[in-house]
Amino acid sequence: MxxxxxxxxxxxxxxxxxxxxxxxxxxxKLSIIGYSEENRPIYGIKIGDGSIKVLIWSQMHGNxxxxxxxxxxxxxxxxxxxxxxxxxxxxxxxxxxxNPDGAAQxxxxxxxxxxxxxxxxxxxxxxSKALSNMFNGFKPDxxxxxxxxxxxxxxxxxxxxxxxxxxxxxxxxxxxxxxxRSKSMKVIAAVNQALQIDIPGQIGRYDxxxxxxxxxxxxxxxxxxxxxxxxxxxxxxxxxxxxxNYVLKALIDSIKIISSGDYNNYTTDQYFNIPExxxxxxxxxxxxxxxxxxGKEYKNQELVINFKEELESSKINFxxxxxxxxxxxxxxxxxxxQIELTEIKNKIVFDKQKPFLQAQSEINKIxx
Length: 368
Ligand SMILES: [Zn+2]
Hints:
Blueprint: H1 3-6, H2 14-22, E1 29-35, E2 41-47, E3 52-58, H3 66-79, E4 90-95, H4 100-105, H5 126-138, E5 142-148, E6 154-155, E7 164-167, H6 179-198, E8 203-205, H7 215-221, E9 225-231, H8 241-260, H9 268-272, E10 277-278, E11 281-293, E12 296-312, E13 315-326, E14 332-338, E15 348-349, H10 360-367
């Protein structure tokens, strides 16, 4: 079974991933680069022997699996000798799942409730040390920092979701552009141009507030060209299998442009022309709802709902919760339902402190 067929859920259990990695027979070197706080192995794979060194890591946030799924497909592709030419000038070091404890529990944080992407200076966690040791020993020319973002992001205000977002982390005070950052920006400009053909208007530029505790900022600050990839939403694709296709394409395009050096034909202006990520979306809008808020009733309202991802028996449930209501919601929604007043017998009680308990059964009645 191929990686594309094998990994179709949002949840990606470390054992299942490690079985897959262990089965990749033709790749040069699979090794354990460290252990998590709960003593799970953290795997690294070294491929190729070219002079340009690229360090790639995914799932430092355990619930961000899409880029790991894309990496599995990249690894499978590179196993085939006919595709190895793709990396003839490169040496890749790939860490598919940096936070296996968080991955097992489907949490952003590691098992000590630490955000590994705020631990780049302290290096208080074994996962952070594993990545830092790899960085120091390998001395990469480029870093790919792979993440996933919520469905709420749009690419600018153009009415389309940010299916892929990219960032060249600033690595210094706001607005500073070092020569290494300039390289990352040009690679991103090239990748954006290629992706626009497939998903026009659905590529965003992530915000570049500098925080030295974030790993991308730290490595960028040390002078390594770093690229942040964020896997985002594609319409009706909550398991993110369509998004995985585009992340894979972004990774392959990045590898190609770095190998050829053709990123020098692009400009930092082209990077800045990519629309910034905005927060325009909710997951679901239910129109025609009667709301009771602090004892007062509001008729014919639009109820704004997002989904929270919850792990249950190795599957992710998308649990609706209320975030707001309005006569007319000015944001965008991935799905909207107009209901008749007779469809709900009980009025929906809006309480920001209890967004799930009071709404879920009523909302489920409407959705199903
Ligand atoms: Zn993340």
